[in-house]
Amino acid sequence: MAVCCIGLSTAALAAPPPAAPTAAASAPATASTAALAPIPFVSPHAANIRTASAPDAWGGPRTPSDATLSDRVTTYAIQATLDPDKHTVDAHQVMTWRNRSDRPVDKIYLHMYLNAFEGPGSTFFTERRMYAGSGHSRGAAKLKKGEWGYIDLKKVQQNGQEVTWRYVQPDNGPKTDHTVVEMDLPQAVPAHGTLTLNMDFHDQLPRVVERTGWWGKFHLVAQWFPKIAVLELPGERGATRVRWNAHEFHYHSEFYADYGNYDVKLTVPKGYTVGAVGHEASAPVDADGKVTYHFKQTDVEDFAWVAAPGYKTMDTTWTGPGSPKVKVRVIYPPEYKVVAEPTMKATTDALTYFSDTLGPYPYKTVTAVIPPYNATEAGGMEYPTFFTAEHSKEYTKGTFSQYWIDFVTIHEFGHGYFMGILGSNEFEEPMLDEGMNEYWDDRMLADRKQGIDVTKPWMKKLGFQPVLGAFAMERASGVLGINFPADSLDANSWDRLSNSSYGSVYSRTASTMRTIENLVGREAMGKAMKLYYERWKFRHPSAADLRDALAEGTGRPALIHQIFDSQVYGTQRVDARVVDVDSAEQLPQAGTVVKDGKRVTVTEKQVDKQIADARAAWKKAHKDAKHGGPYPWLTTVTVRRTGAPVPRRLEVKFADGSSETVKWDDDSRWKRFTFLKPVKAVSAELDPKRELYLDANKLNDSYRVKKDGSASSRWTADAQALLQTFYTFVGTL
Asked: How far apart are the first and last CA of the chain?
């Protein structure tokens, strides 16, 4: 097992000890530095942020008059060399960081993500064992001797002075986790001052696992360099004081970083195809059998790259209002040429949709990478301007293969907005990236009426030929999370009951947002999402900031707060049912009545004659009538709520073909609605347009007085959805 080693010098680092110690002492800390009060970490269980960020958080909203897209905090200049035989990267990095706070900083924290794969003692593998058997998740690849990965710091200097550093576990994970380092700076960074560190580091890439690594000669190099944690200020994402947001690399966690600039030179063997975040700043330099590529990108939070021999490229350009001309490239192995063009089309389609519905795409490049066979763990991952898509040797329009290639491509591109441009904290609020992105991806498919055909021959034999809409599929695939939510949507990525509970971040968020859209209207939701994007682009919003943007943009603050309280911050099930439908003809009654000032008795015999005469007269006057009569019908529909209150409609249909729709939009647990009509009711249905994707049980939404086969049809629709879910899971194993 490879371990991340530390020591007093580069020479000492070359000989790793049996087990990695918890501290290194490259140089003693100065007395002045030691005197500063420590800056605390964010809570190891940070989640469910309810307090909106301050208006000037992260420098305030970005405007066209700003000189840069983001309030740039970091700069990374990296020179790296890949050894594809050993699967290693050796690099020199100059990192510049701006202290945004009003106090000096003498300790900083850097992420060492690759150390998640150095051995079974990491937080990542510890949690993976805990979640084993609780649902499928990525990151399940089993590593063995020669396949582990790690990152070693070889040298860290500030102004020529050695920097002391040690591993820490901010989330109280195992001491054997080495994914965060604390550095003691020889010279404190003054308030609003700048720090520059020179670093040498060595990466041993793992066999491809959880978004990074190698398979054969294919190398996806991601989360590969020491990256400084985010120093949050009061008023930012719920912070009440200056704090370090530095979490260990958890099994379900993704990432969070400051915006900055990247200037990266990558040296690889000749004959390798290279793609990366950003654009090529200069022509490749060929020397001694190696080629050096130079990439630059401003205003992003991360940098990843791919190198593989013999890979092909497909290029096009895209233009849109408010965006620069965008160079779009697909990098693919020759055996997967069949999906290169569909991946390209899905990417350009997504560029158009996201730019039109949220805001113009601000960068000059998009690169999509199709991974090779046996590198599934490398597929479906996002970085700014760069993502990995899905590989497949099958692609047929109008089949599930088309949906899957399209959706994965659109989804990974969409992260460029929700993870990248909006800067969501994927550690603590995965719903803001994975969930909101899933919603907008499904919305794109729904808007272009792209159904999901999951029919197979064996399904046809059973009589099922399901073609589902994107949100119907989302609801079906997330049925457990909707029916029995274990965790709030805004829970962090690691405090989760199970793999399945984390997975519900995707489906339940999408279902929640689509429910809101159906309740407030498409135009209002579109306006609110544009407001959210415009207000928070190149900043780092919280769920509370999303809530407030939706409340303002839709003009329905009470509804938005109600749903956020029950779903985003809560775990309330949503379900209501029609309990009973009763129609009673309003006939004359026997008894005593006051007539002409006197009380008289009306017998049942008299009443029967009165009714018979009235019916005969009515039929004579309405010879062709199939329904109705001289007396009206009073219909009473009883509904009951067994979950969180969500506004919904009740539609009652009557024997003459007419219908009435009323709103049930209060907090009552049950309610009776009455209708006086010429005919009796034949059915009642809650949510007749199926707008409430959060509803846990659609089978109890309707009640039919007369059996006409409708209930069977409705059951069939839900059964199709369940079969589709089963097929989807089988197909992705």
From this structure: 28
Tokens 């579109």 belong to which residue? Answer: 526
Task: Give pairs for 452-457: CB < 8 Å, separation 24+.
Answer: 452/400, 452/403, 452/724, 453/398, 453/399, 453/400, 453/403, 454/400, 454/723, 454/724, 454/727, 454/728, 456/727
Percent of the chain with pLDDT over 90: 77
Residue 329 lies in a domain: no
628 phi and psi, to 5 degrees? 100, 180
d(CA 382, CA 587): 69
Q: Is residue 349 in a domain?
A: no
Look at residue 140 in the predicted model and tell me its pLDDT: 58
Query: Do 510 and 581 belong to one domain?
Result: no
19: three-class secondary structure by DSSP? coil
- 440 Cβ neighbours under 8 A, 6+ residues apart: 354, 357, 358, 414, 417, 418, 529
Domain count of the chain?
A: 4
pLDDT tens for 128-186 read 999 876 555 555 567 788 899 999 999 999 999 999 999 999 999 999 999 999 999 99
Q: Tally the C-alpha atoms within 13 A of residue 356's C-alpha that lie toward its C-beta.
A: 10
pLDDT of 338: 94
Q: Which domain holds residue 604?
A: 587-631
Instruction: Read off the pLDDT of each residue in 368-397 and give the average, rounded to a whole number.
Output: 90
Using a CB cutoff of 8 Å and minimum separation of 24, what contacts does 711-718 make? 716/464
**Per DSSP, which regions of 603-690 are E strands?**
633-641, 648-654, 659-664, 670-677, 681-686
Quick check: 598 pLDDT over 70?
Answer: yes
CB distance 446 to 426 below 8 Å: no
- pLDDT band at residue 69 using 50, 70 and 90 as cut-offs: very high
CATH code at position 433: 1.10.390.10
Query: Is residue 409 a contact partner of residue 350, using CB atoms and an 8 Å limit?
Result: yes
CATH code, domain carrying 200 = 2.60.40
Across the range 2-14, mean pLDDT stands at 31
Q: Are residues 97 and 239 in the same domain?
A: yes
Is the pTM value of this prediction over 0.85?
yes
Residue pointed to by tokens 């609003």:
192
SS3 683: strand
Please return the burial class of 233, using the count of CB atoms within 10 Å of its CB with bins 0-12, 13-18 and 19+: middle
The angle at the Cα of 537, spanning 362 to 443, to the nearest 5 degrees, equals 80
Average pLDDT estimate for 39-48: 96
Number of H helices, E strands in the chain: 16, 34
Please give the single-letter amino acid code of residue 303: F
Q: Which of 292, 123, 84 is nearest to 204 (CA)?
A: 84
Query: Contact at 8 Å (CB) between 163 and 26?
Result: yes
3-state secondary structure of 501: helix
Residues, the chain: 733
**Residue 613 three-state SS:** helix
